[in-house]
Design brief:
The chain is of the alpha/beta class. The chain contains 4 helices and 5 strands, in the order E-H-E-H-E-H-E-H-E. The chain has a 5-stranded parallel β-sheet, sandwiched between helices. The longest helix has 16 residues.
Length: 123
């Protein structure tokens, strides 16, 4: 069975360089879905996200509150579990936010879904 890779990107916690690299790789991979959440407080980052949205990465609207992108990603995870319940999947979290990654890892463990956190230094 082919595995579906689902990338959850917390754009508020990674650098613009890392964000561009991730988006490029996701757009050029098959069996891969990418979701980005951010609070739209950085115009450069917003431009990057909108450019890659045209290529198939989904931009998740976030509430304009502290940790809004985190809330959006955790909510999205619930939708992923119900929408892709019949598919073998692996969740890849791109964030330097320890609280967010622990929450997503906890949810994945409860659903017996493989999950991997990929952190990078914020440049």
């Amino acid at each position: 069975m082919n595995q579906l890779y689902i990338h959850l990107i917390d754009a508020d916690s990674i650098s613009n360089t890392r964000l561009k690299h991730l988006c490029h790789n996701i757009c050029n991979s098959s069996k891969t879905i990418g979701y980005i959440a951010h609070n739209e407080h950085c115009p450069t980052r917003t431009d990057i996200i909108h450019n890659y949205a045209k290529l198939g990465i989904t931009n998740i609207p976030s509430p304009k509150v502290k940790n809004g992108a985190d809330f959006a990603l955790v909510f999205l995870l619930g939708e992923i579990f119900s929408t892709h319940q019949d598919k073998q999947k692996k969740i890849l979290i791109h964030s330097n936010d320890n609280a967010l990654t622990r929450a997503i890892e906890w949810a994945c463990a409860r659903k017996f879904t493989p999950c991997q956190t990929l952190t990078t230094p914020k440049l």
